[in-house]
Amino acid sequence: MLETLILSRIQFAANISFHILFPTLTIALGWLLVFYKWRFNRTGDAMWLNVYFFWVKIFALTFALGVVSGITMSFQFGTNWPGFMEKVGNVAGPLLGYEVMTAFFMEATFLGVMLFGRGRVPEWLHNLATVLVAVGTSISAFWILVLNSWMHTPQGHEVIDGVVHVVSWREVIFNPSLPYRLSHMLLASGLTACFVTVGISAYQLLKSSHHKPAQRSFKVAITAAALLAPLQMLVGDMHGLNTLEHQPAKIAAMEGVWETERGAPLLLFAVPNEETRSNDFAIEVPHLASLILTHDFNGEIVGLNEFAPDHPPVKPLFFGFRIMVGMGVLMLLFSWFGAWKVHRGLALKPLVLRAFVVMTFSGWIATLAGWYVTEVGRQPWLVSGVLRTADAVTPVAGSSVAVTLALYLMIYAALLYAYLRTIFYLANKSLSESPVPTSDTQKETIA
């Protein structure tokens, strides 16, 4: 059973890791498309339409893969985690149904109009379709985050004969961690979409430095990223305070705090050692962890030893958290530097553009690291205090799970490779397409 549990967890992690790449991009990319279309309608400048047409192709491709990977992921509730739906299906089932009824149907209905309707339907209807697709992606994120947040901070329910029943849908939906987790995820999507846009645009500018649609999309995305990055850090701080209140064991693992202490140091680097229950090779800043987490130099942080043996594995959380924060700092610095350059009308040299190309998928890295911290940090619980992960796993043999895991990994690797190849193919193809001419009086700030 232990082998089945571990393999099932790895398989679900692989599925959700692949799936989350795509909605993380489409949620905010949909709103960038709304902005591009609004700018075209407002100015009449057809160059904005060129930007829109290019990015709507990438949106459609990303949306399709998100739908397909989401369907296969939902199958695993029955195949790998039957105990989950048996015990909390009264909560999970309706919430997933709400997501389909309020979001997916809207997206599916208007996506076709957005992709193929221009010139076939009135312009106002095409504009409305673009807005509603963006709204649909955000509503979808809301319902998924409602369920996931409830799994971390469950309330509004009662357990009768081992089955969870809803007492208050208001409390279930608006559970304590939802505002912070939803805001954190939406901002993560914004940064991911901005850096994908910046990276692909930089790639195009390396090929053709005067490609005007790439100049436009670069400037819009780098400006948005420069605004979103500090806001994400502020929301992350509030999310940390909420997690400290409701999931202190997770915070202790993230910070590598073994013994309850006041004025806990911030570990810049260490190697947590679960055998000795201490940290090796620690480089620390005195009192800083307490200051960040409690806003008090001498604030108390409860140590992992208070939760033994029911605390999450330490190393994945400790290093995952630092990867997430490190990528966030890099995105902040890159976005501020890029925004400063373009708004001063300064040319971006090839070396700088190559650096932005390297940062194309930095949002994915930060998001995956953050999700690993979030989900691994809930262990050994599937629903905190309600359902243990080991009690929900399938009884099938581990060898069967291993076969399906191998198949999933091969298919997902092939799909991801094809997806990335297609994106860069579209980026190269757009360079040879004749853009709609714009007025000679319009000035571009990126050379």
From TrEMBL:
One GO CC annotation: plasma membrane
Topology of this chain in the membrane: Multi-pass membrane protein
An example molecular function term from Gene Ontology annotations: heme binding
Record field: transmembrane: 12-36, 48-75, 95-116, 128-146, 185-206, 218-235, 317-339, 351-373, 393-420
Keyword Amino-acid biosynthesis in annotation: no
Listed GO biological process terms: aerobic electron transport chain
Keywords, alphabetical: Cell membrane, Electron transport, Heme, Iron, Membrane, Metal-binding, Transmembrane, Transmembrane helix, Transport
Locations listed in the record: Cell inner membrane; Cell membrane
Principal subcellular localisation of the protein: membrane
Keyword Heme included in the entry's annotation: yes
Domain of life, per lineage: Bacteria
One Pfam family from the record: Cyt_bd_oxida_I
InterPro entries (UniProt xref): Cyt-d_ubiquinol_oxidase_su_1 (IPR002585)
Family: Belongs to the cytochrome ubiquinol oxidase subunit 1 family.
Protein name according to UniProt: Cytochrome ubiquinol oxidase subunit I
Lineage of origin: Bacteria, Pseudomonadati, Pseudomonadota, Gammaproteobacteria, Vibrionales
